[in-house]
Each structure stands twice: as structure tokens, then as C-alpha cells.
Amino acid sequence: MEKTFLMVKPDGVQRNLIGEIVSRFEKKGFQLVGAKLMSIPNELAEEHYGEHKERPFFGELVDFITSGPVFAMVWQGENVIATARQMMGSTNPKDAAPGTIRGDFGLTVGKNVIHGSDSPASAEREIGLFFKETEVVDYSKLVNEWIY
Ligand code: RTP
Ligand code: MG
């Protein structure tokens, strides 16, 4: 089953949006298989956002993501990587459609509430960075094959 890494950023945690965000993915039908509230060490933040190292906003990005606790999650389900990105909305909340997480709750590109992996390769890399193998669980609530 496809898995993705999603994370409520420090602004989302401080604005009490963890429950709202978890609820959206639960209601969509995806399955939560890993989760933790954590502070991100500087080295992990730099590695996680390594692809943006040369960008002018890199320092700000690392400072922000390490500024307070985040809620890190692993979700699974069919097409979860692309669907979660659609549910998050555009990177800049000013361009994000109403009904998306960033469209409904975000105001600025720096504080856009949620992170989500953008490809299968990123998902695998990011899950590995944030979660030990034993922290991602495998469980079934199987009643019908379309509910997991
Ligand atoms: P994310 O990685 O956080 O899920 O967001 P994303 O894929 O939609 O966007 P990405 O291009 O990977 O950028 C990572 C984060 O950097 C911040 N950013 N700031 N000041 C700026 O121009 C700027 N551009 C991007 C955003 O917080 C974005 O989520
Ligand atoms: Mg990204």
C-alpha cells in the first residue's frame, strides 16, 4: 500500500489544527500508520529540506520548522501521495483553493500549516528520516476491501 509523510508544521500545532487536519485524512478514507509530536533537531530540518539548500529562504525555513513542535505522520492508501497534495492545496496559501488545508487555514507561504511528500521517492526518504521501522505500524480494520 502506498505511504506518504505528512507533517503539521509549528504554526498548525500552535493554532490547534492537528485534530482538524487528522480528521480530514481520516474522513477521506486513508489510514494513519505512524504519528508523533516532536521537536525537529536542526540537522534533521536541514536534511529534510536539503533540496532547498541553495534557495534564499532556506535559513528561514529551517528556523521556522525548528521553532516549535510539529506533528509528524505516516498515512497510507491508494494514491495517498498525490491525493494528500491535492487536499493540502498550493504551496502559497494565496493560490490555494478554498476547501484545501492551505486554502482554508493558511495565510503566508512561510507558514502554510502542513508539509506533504511530493513523490514516491520523497515519501520513502522522509518516512525514513522521521520514523524508525518499528514506529510505522501494520494493522487492519478490514470489513470490506474498500475500507482500510
Ligand atoms: P512542503 O515541502 O513544505 O510540503 O511544501 P511544498 O512542497 O508545497 O513546497 P516546496 O517548494 O517544497 O517548499 C518548501 C517550503 O518552503 C517554504 N517556501 N518559502 N519564501 C518563499 O518564497 C518560499 N517558498 C517556499 C514553504 O513553506 C514551503 O512549504
Ligand atoms: Mg516540498
How are strands sequenced across the largest beta sheet?
2-3-1-4
CATH architecture verdict: 2-Layer Sandwich
Q: Which word captures the global form?
A: globular
Estimate nothing, just give the exact number of structural domains.
1
Structural class: alpha+beta
Strand fraction: 15-25%
Q: Count every helix, treating DSSP H or I runs of 4 or more residues as helices.
A: 7
CATH top level is: Alpha Beta
Largest sheet: 4 strands, antiparallel
CATH superfamily: Nucleoside diphosphate kinase-like domain
What ligands does this structure carry? Answer: ribavirin triphosphate, magnesium ion
* Helix/strand order, N-terminal first: EHHEHHEHHEH
Oligomer: single chain
The value of Rg in angstroms is 15 Å
Structure summary, number of beta strands:
4
Mean pLDDT: 96
- CATH domain topology: Alpha-Beta Plaits
Low-confidence stretches: none
Distance between the termini: 10 Å
List the helices and strands and how they pair.
Layout: E1 3-8, H1 10-14, H2 18-28, E2 31-38, H3 42-48, H4 58-65, E3 70-76, H5 80-88, H6 101-105, E4 114-116, H7 120-130
Antiparallel strand pairs: 1-3, 1-4, 2-3
The structure holds ribavirin triphosphate (RTP) and magnesium ion.
What would a concise description of this structure say?
ATP binds at residues 9, 57, 85, 91, 102, 112. The protein has 148 residues and is α+β, with helices and mostly antiparallel strands. It is built from 7 helices and 4 strands.
